[in-house]
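Database export, one record per block. Field names are fixed; values are copied verbatim from the stored entry.
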Amino acid sequence: MIQVRANRETCEGFGNCVRTAASIFALDDEGVVVVIQELVPRDKLGDLRRAAYDCPTDSISFVEGGEGE
């Protein structure tokens, strides 16, 4: 499993993460990122990498080998 993290303090609500991985990220009522799935399977690694790469504020990160591995 991969542990997903998002820094709500640096997020500016561009929404690139949601467009790339809507099953993992959402924006709240204030337009700030929310992680809706904190542990994701390895088959989502490509989406996570793209979401982190596309985030202009570098607010998305992940750790491979989270719980359950």
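Remark 1: The domain at 2-64 is CATH 3.30.70.20 (Alpha-Beta Plaits).
Remark 2: The chain has one domain: 2-64.
End of record.
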